[in-house]
Amino acid sequence: MKLHYYTNCVNWPREDVHREGGLCSMIEARRPITRRTFLKHVDRVDRCELERAFGYAPHDPEAILPMARDWAVSYYRSVLHGKRVYYINHSAIEYVFA
C-alpha cells in the first residue's frame, strides 16, 4: 500500500510536535533515502500534486529544474507514532507521507 500525503511541519498539530513519537521524534529518527526509494512507497497522485504546488513540472523531463534534480530537496524514511513514514525536506520544511 502506498502512503498518502499527511501534512507538513508548518501545519503540524501543535500538541504533537514535542510529544514522544511525534514530529521531533520523527525528525530525530530519520534515515536518508534515495528519490527512487521514496517513489516506491508514496502515492503517485499525492506526490505529483505536491510537486506542482512547489512549482515543479512532475511529468516534464525537459523542465529546467525538476524536483528529481533539485539539490535542495532531500528524502527520508522514519517512524511516526510507531508507523513507518516517508518524507521530503524542501526548503527546510518536512512534507510527510503516512
What is the topology?
Elements: E1 5-8, H1 23-28, E2 31-33, H2 35-41, H3 44-54, E3 73-80, E4 83-90, E5 93-97
Antiparallel strand pairs: 1-5, 2-3, 3-4, 4-5
Short précis:
This protein is of the alpha+beta class and 98 residues long. The protein is built from three helices and five strands.
Structure description:
- The chain has helices at 23-28, 35-41, 44-54, and strands spanning 5-8, 31-33, 73-80, 83-90, 93-97.
- The protein is of the alpha+beta class and 98 residues long.
- The chain has one domain (5-97).
- Strands 1-5-4-3-2 form a five-stranded antiparallel sheet.
- A hairpin with a 2-residue loop joins strand 4 (83-90) and strand 5.
- The longest helix is centred in the middle third of the chain and has 11 residues, at 44-54.
- The chain is globular and about 45 Å long.
- The model has no long low-confidence stretch (mean pLDDT 93).
Brief descriptors of the model:
alpha+beta; globular; 5-stranded antiparallel beta sheet; 5 strands; 98 residues; 3 helices
End-to-end gap = 11 Å
Structural class assignment: alpha+beta
* Strand order, largest beta sheet: 1-5-4-3-2
Shape: globular
Q: What is the tally of beta strands? A: 5
β-strand amount? 25-35%
Number of helix segments?
3
Computed over alpha carbons, the radius of gyration is: 13 Å
Considering DSSP H and I runs of 4 or more, what fraction of the residues is helical? 10-25%
Low-confidence runs: none
Q: Quick check: average pLDDT?
A: 93
Domains counted in the coordinates: how many? 1
The main sheet comes to: 5 strands, antiparallel
Q: What is the ordering of alpha helices and beta strands?
A: EHEHHEEE
